[in-house]
UniProtKB/TrEMBL annotation:
Chain residue ranges for the region called Disordered: 170-204
Protein name: Uncharacterized protein
Feature: compositional bias, Basic and acidic residues: 195-204
Length: 204
């Protein structure tokens, strides 16, 4: 992608590309990917929740470029967006309707247009339920960034830092400890766990 422009369309395309990169690197750790998809499906299908969180991050990046354009008269380039620290970006307390500013000047692909339409519906037409759902989606985006920040031990982690990982061979991601299993009942004959049964096989 050319970085010479910084036009609204180039900026939006870069935001989508950067968002996809963030999620691609996050999902290199399979159990974190599974947790993300499971937790994001509350009241939504997994593909829809996945698409909405990715789009929400792209919108957050685009909103930051709009902030810069309002102050300086020029949008950020793709490389400048890639240098933004992700953690402060997703921690911003921004009104959801602000995320859609300037989108009328860009062309969205059909899938992204549909996802943005759903986010707008949640923002404008379902203020109670919508606000809760948007908060959950935003929290899921925040968790993704926090995990990456912890994984690479970099509080200022930016999209640019993730490019080499995404472009490299599988396994570039450092080992991440598996979550501990939930406590279970005592072990009985045969090596299986049965909650509520003591070691002699009697019910508790």
């Amino acid at each position: 992608m050319s970085d010479s422009g910084g036009t609204p369309q180039l900026v939006w395309d870069a935001c989508v590309e950067h968002s996809e990169l963030v999620f691609r690197v996050h999902d290199q750790v399979s159990w974190q990917r599974d947790r993300r998809l499971e937790s994001g499906a509350r009241g939504l299908t997994i593909p829809l929740a996945d698409g909405l969180t990715r789009t929400l991050l792209a919108l957050s990046l685009y909103a930051r470029s709009n902030d810069v354009a309002a102050a300086t008269g020029r949008h950020l380039t793709g490389d400048e967006l890639a240098g933004l620290p992700l953690l402060p970006l997703v921690a911003e307390q921004r009104r959801h309707y602000e995320l859609f500013t300037g989108l009328e000047t860009v062309t969205l692909d059909p899938v992204r247009s549909h996802l943005v339409g759903i986010l707008k519906l949640l923002t404008y037409e379902q203020p109670g339920h919508g606000a809760l759902m948007l908060a959950r989606l935003g929290a899921d985006v925040h968790i993704v960034v926090v995990r990456l920040t912890d994984r690479y031990r970099n509080a200022g982690l930016a999209v640019g830092d993730l490019r080499a990982v995404a472009d490299g061979a599988t396994g570039d991601a450092p080992a991440v400890e598996q979550p501990r299993r939930e406590a279970r009942g005592p072990r009985v004959r045969g090596g299986r766990w049965r909650p509520g049964v003591d070691r002699r096989g009697r019910g508790s």
